[in-house]
């Protein structure tokens, strides 16, 4: 049995499969390839069977989203390392070699992410992960190479030796099987968006490292499933962020950070109103209602670290919008 299982989660993505599977097969001899299908209604399954008979197919009974879709699909996948790969990612030659080497070298490494560049402009980092993710004290995510909507060109500035990060992108996410199962996988309630940050945070709380390596490179289209600016995306991001904070914040941070986030989310909602984006304003209201309804369940799932600092900076909002620092490499010089 090969050590890596590369598992693509698909939902009505025949066109993406047609475009990106050839490079995956060409450069992935070290892995067993799977497509986990979330009950597609297009011709995805027939297309794979006809054109790529070596790919193993896992068929879910409904569109369970990213979180539950992967949880169900991976129950019977027994390779030692899982690679969860978006169907809109182009891989490159030898992309798996440094990943295997890092897992073999350090048993404390639980999760890995390669360099993620923009498929549409290969000189730039891609929004969903770039060169590895962090969060601020209030749970706002950002990346080396991408802060909010400011995306850096890749000039090798993050090509140093492997870097410990806080979260890895779900676009191309490597995790040891034993850790994925120990953590009971993703939180099904997230459906999609930020479930990988929650999983990395839970791994961090147990003492596992999440690592970025520039020695492995992939290109991601991004936004192929749920477009930027979709109110559904706004709802999921705001709701899931509150879920994640409730589950993982250290005890002394829980109440003040949740209260602060409610205020900050309110400010974001007012901004949407001012811009006339009423559906996004309503999405934030709906997100908070869902958070209140689920708060007891999330509190019961708490397994926070009592000692380790989880955040890279206190407020990325203050740094980005008030201090006007928009490049990750300049953040540390400002603290």
Instruction: Give the CATH architecture of the largest domain.
Output: Alpha-Beta Complex
CATH topology of the largest domain: Spore Coat Polysaccharide Biosynthesis Protein SpsA, Chain A
- Helical run tally: 10
Helix and strand sequence: EHEHEHEEHEEEEEEEHHEHHHH
Give the overall silhouette.
Answer: globular
Q: Could you report the average pLDDT, rounded to the nearest whole number?
A: 95
Q: How many structural units, i.e. domains? A: 2
Residues in helix, %: 25-40%
Gist?
The chain is α/β, with parallel strands linked by helices. It is built from 10 helices and 13 strands. The longest helix is centred in the C-terminal third of the chain and has 23 residues, at 278-300.
